Amino acid sequence: MIAGKGRKGAALFLFAAVLSGAAGAILFLPLAPVLCARPRTRPGPVLILEDLSAGMREVEFVISYTHSVNKGRVRDFCRLGSGGSIDIYKTRFVSYGAGMPEPEDGSRFRSGDGWLELDNLGVTVPRIVLALGSSADHRIDCGGRTFVLKDVWPVQTSIAIEVRKISLYSLIVKQYLRKQ
């Protein structure tokens, strides 16, 4: 009779071990898609811009920075495309000159009160890579929040903005910390 309890106990222990291992795998495997900014070449914090775990949907964001040549503020307007690609559909700046984009096929200039805009760009990329400059003051506006990148990473850090999968654990912890 004791031998029977031992087998049942061992089976129960084995079942509990397998169940906790499966739960741990689900918690720590990269399964949750997010739009994020992260260092490209070294470890560092991952900045979650938008949680996409409820499904891909139309997400728009703006990357803004001070241009190194004309010293004016530039705003690049982006949205998620199919399969997690990023569509850069327009850029807005305060003055035109060296280093600024030129109209290509299908794009056009518009102007407003103190700004110039080049729209209908039609640029689709898998990720956006940028290096944080000392005077650029890179920012990302997404989901009603502004992320100041120099507050997260040091100058000269190479950043990738992309859709990635992270673990549910990371998503829960980072979402909690972001709300603090």
What does this structure look like?
The protein has one domain (32-178). The protein has helices spanning 2-28, 168-178; strands spanning 30-39, 47-51, 60-66, 73-80, 86-93, 108-112, 115-125, 128-131, 139-142, 145-148, 158-167. β6 (108-112) and β7 (115-125) form a beta hairpin. The strands form two sheets. The chain has a seven-stranded antiparallel β-sheet, with no helix packed on it. It has a four-stranded antiparallel β-sheet with strand order 2-1-11-8. By secondary structure, the chain is of the alpha+beta class. It is built from two helices and eleven strands; from the N terminus they run αβββββββββββα. 21% of the residues lie in helices and 42% in strands. The protein starts with a helix and ends with a helix.
* Strand element count: 11
Give the N-terminus to C-terminus distance in angstroms.
Answer: 56 Å
Q: Give, in spatial order, the strands making up the sheet with the most strands.
A: 6-7-5-4-3-9-10
Shape, principal axes of CA atoms: elongated
Question: How many helices?
Answer: 2
Beta-strand content bin: 35-45%
Work out the helicity level. 10-25%
Structurally, how many domains make up the residues?
1
Measured on Cα atoms, how large is the radius of gyration?
Answer: 23 Å
Mean pLDDT: 79
Low-confidence stretches: 176-180
Main sheet record: 7 strands, antiparallel
Q: Based on helices, strands and strand pairing, what is the structural class?
A: alpha+beta
